[in-house]
Specification:
- It is a single chain.
- With about 500 residues, the protein is α/β, with parallel strands linked by helices.
- It is about 35% helix and about 15% strand.
- It contains 14 helices and 22 strands.
- The strands form 6 sheets. It has a 5-stranded mixed beta sheet with strand order 2-1-3-4-8.
- It has 3 domains: about 110 residues, Diphthamide synthesis DPH1/DPH2 domain 1 (Rossmann fold, 3-Layer(aba) Sandwich), CATH 3.40.50; about 150 residues, Rossmann fold; about 130 residues, Diphthamide synthesis DPH1/DPH2 domain 3 (Rossmann fold), CATH 3.40.50.11860.
- Helix 7 links the parallel strand 12 and strand 13.
């Protein structure tokens, strides 16, 4: 392995030098941590050489950026660890290994995807043999670790596809592109749908046949469809491992024909029904969550842009459904941690798309995503078959729903809620209507107080609930006031307890 090429030492050093970062955090997953010291050393040397070339004196290069190695990330290793970077007051993060490319909130990041090996010729041959039988145009997508090999794969596919040009089994091949390896902080993505972007024809360098109207983004990839085409018209060809990125891809585009080329084993897998079964299980969890009374909101990220908005939205959603909700921050969740909250009937996991799906088999209560919570707790919501993983998409859709709801007004003249009720006809009418609405709301609250039809006002918060429960854990106040369990047994050291008789 070419070490400097694999870790992109030159590109990273240029990035740090160009933007004049002074404190840089290097984030490694566990499997790459063994190379961290060597990467830091190589980067330090390269940055000093760049400073010497620009300043001309070795003395001035002593002000090179300080590098800090981060490991054991707070949450998923695919996300930029802004919490860990804040501990060393870093102004930039260099992220190595598998990444979800989720937007950050406060700090820029440069992602080094790595360079997984692949046989381009074998990949091209496998794809063309299957596409010739399928008869659909092909859209090639890939894991980010294979982005470095895409030029070779494109060249091999071009040569291989020429064999079918003159036959009836000819087909067209299109490719997705990497969005960017640099993540720019974004305070709010409420108005951006990161999966399906309905935008103008701008930045259309990747379009297929001129005019395009729909852009897609998922797993750090982007592509466009020609006008008049839908994604189901294409054969989706995924190059990569069966990992969280592929699962995200399967769930989002489960209605399309998908095949996967396993670069490690070197074969094409056409049956992805096993992954598709995940969707049925997720729908089962949604139905089970509808019966929940107490809901825990698990914080699975402290860095992905929009996570606070998502937490507030979930709290509002659960409360409006007449259920109890409280937020839990515990790092990476596991069965032992969540077992401390047996009162929770279901948990909502707010995290990036590639860590959102937790297998609930080992947990006492099911764990669902924000999108699944929207279906479970929104009155009248039905699952249409579409599936959303990015919680930024959920925020965007919720904003549209709130806007629609806010347009409805109660009309006492017409005896119900109407969509286009105009309150601007007169101030007297407006004041009268508002006062009647307020009186009616108070009457409904008093009427339902005893029947508890609307119990959310009387629902206790999570802190109040746990403060009132019988068991709150063991408390050690001092040596003279131990709880009863601590008085059971012997005192002293094993070599000679206090009550042991010397023989």
């Amino acid at each position: 392995m070419d070490f400097e090429n694999y870790y992109e030492i030159t590109r990273v050093a240029d990035f740090i030098h160009t933007y004049n970062f002074s404190r840089v955090a290097l984030q490694f997953p566990d499997k790459l941590l063994k190379d961290s010291s060597r990467v830091a050393s190589s980067l330090r040397k390269k940055i000093r050489h760049l400073l010497e070339d620009s300043n001309g004196t070795p003395e001035e290069s002593r002000g090179a950026a300080k590098l800090y190695v981060m490991a054991d990330t707070t949450y998923g290793s695919c996300c930029v660890d802004e919490v860990g970077a804040a501990h060393v007051k870093a102004d930039c993060v260099i992220h190595y290994g598998h990444t979800c490319l989720s937007p950050t909130t406060t700090i820029p990041a440069f992602c080094v995807f790595g360079k997984a090996p692949i046989m381009a010729s074998n990949c091209a041959e496998s794809l063309c043999n299957y596409a010739a039988k399928c008869g659909k145009p092909v859209l090639v997508l890939f894991g980010l670790e294979y982005a470095h090999a895409m030029p070779d794969i494109k060249e091999a596919l071009t040569v291989e596809a020429m064999k079918y040009r003159d036959s009836n089994s000819g087909f067209e091949i299109y490719y997705a592109d990497v969005t960017n390896s640099i993540i720019i902080p974004s305070e709010s993505l409420k108005m951006e749908n990161r999966h399906l972007l309905l935008t103008d024809n701008q930045d259309n360098n990747e379009d297929f046949s001129g005019k395009t109207d729909i852009k897609f983004r998922i797993n750090g990839l982007r592509w466009s469809l020609p006008e008049g085409y839908s994604l189901s018209d294409y054969l989706l060809f995924w190059i990569g491992s069966d990992n969280s990125a592929f699962t995200n891809f399967i769930l989002t585009f489960h209605s399309c024909e998908i095949v996967r080329y396993d670069a490690t084993e070197g074969y094409l897998k056409t049956d992805v029904s096993q992954q598709a079964k995940i969707l049925k299980h997720r729908y089962f969890l949604v139905e089970k969550a509808k019966d929940a009374n107490m809901v825990g909101i698990l914080v699975g990220t402290l860095g992905v842009a929009g996570y606070l908005d998502m937490i507030h939205q979930m709290t509002e959603l659960v409360t409006k459904a007449g259920k109890k909700a409280y937020t839990l921050v515990m790092g990476k969740p596991n069965p032992a941690k969540l077992a401390n909250f047996p009162e929770c009937d279901v948990f909502i996991y707010v995290s990036c798309a590639q860590t959102a799906l937790l297998d609930s088999k080992e947990f006492l209560a099911p764990i669902i995503t924000p999108f699944e919570a929207m279906i479970a707790f929104n009155r009248g919501s039905e699952w249409t078959g579409a599936y959303v993983m990015e919680f930024q998409d959920v925020i965007a859709s919720h904003t549209v729903e709130v806007k629609k709801e806010s347009e409805a007004r109660f009309s006492f003249l017409q005896g119900g809620y109407v969509e286009d009720f105009d309150l601007q006809e007169g101030n007297d009418d407006k004041d009268t209507v508002l006062s009647l609405v307020n009186v009616t709301e108070k009457a409904l609250q008093l009427r339902n107080k005893d029947t508890q039809l609307f119990s959310r006002r009387d629902a206790k918060s999570g802190a109040e609930y746990f403060a009132a429960r019988s068991f709150q854990g063991l408390e050690i106040h001092g040596s003279d006031s131990f709880p009863e369990p601590f008085l059971i047994g012997r005192r002293g050291k094993a070599s000679g307890y206090e009550d042991e008789q010397n023989k």
